[in-house]
UniProtKB/TrEMBL annotation:
Belongs to the F420H(2)-dependent quinone reductase family. It comes from the Bacteria. It comes from Devosia ginsengisoli. InterPro entries: F420H2_quin_Rdtase (IPR004378), Split_barrel_FMN-bd (IPR012349). This is Nitroreductase family deazaflavin-dependent oxidoreductase. GO terms for molecular function: coenzyme F420 binding; oxidoreductase activity. It catalyses: oxidized coenzyme F420-(gamma-L-Glu)(n) + a quinol + H(+) = reduced coenzyme F420-(gamma-L-Glu)(n) + a quinone. GO terms for cellular component: plasma membrane. Gene3D superfamilies: Electron Transport, Fmn-binding Protein, Chain A (2.30.110.10). Pfam families: F420H2_quin_red.
Length: 141
């Protein structure tokens, strides 16, 4: 895990799921995935979109616009039943979820909303050589 991610995770836990710094005022969750090859648990802080309080969480395999998908995306495809942590600034809840790759018009709509709220996501799509940046829906199980 990178030092940057370790710091975000520590900040997330210290502030009840509301990290500061680079992610101040951004929705962040902690993704507990299982390595596609290793089978080991991995922990990744990710920005998310949630359009309704009882709806799913959406995460974006933007990887900062890099030409390949991040490892966590491959982990979710291989092992879709995982857990996330989300917080309200006071409490952090660990939630079992099922991952589903969103495609077609649904993917386009969700990604466009994330890019509207956080313009850097539009920049990531322009920067990457990938045809699209994958969107993953995380639904309670």
């Amino acid at each position: 895990m990178s030092d940057f991610n370790a710091q975000v995770i520590a900040d997330f836990k210290q502030h009840g799921g509301q990290p500061g710094g680079h992610f101040k005022d951004s929705p962040v969750l902690l993704l507990h995935s299982i390595g596609a090859k290793s089978g080991q648990e991995r922990l990744q802080p990710l920005m998310y979109l949630r359009q309704e309080a009882s709806g799913p969480w959406y995460v974006f395999a933007s990887y900062g616009g890099a030409p390949k998908n991040p490892a966590w995306f491959h982990n979710l495809v291989a092992h879709p039943e995982i857990e996330i942590e989300v917080g309200d600034g006071t409490d952090i809840e660990r939630i079992p979820v099922r991952a589903r790759v969103v495609e077609g018009d649904e993917r386009t709509t969700v990604y466009a909303e994330q890019a509207r709220r956080f313009p850097q996501f539009a920049d990531y799509q322009k920067k990457t050589t990938r045809e699209i940046i994958p969107v993953v829906e995380l639904s309670r199980r």
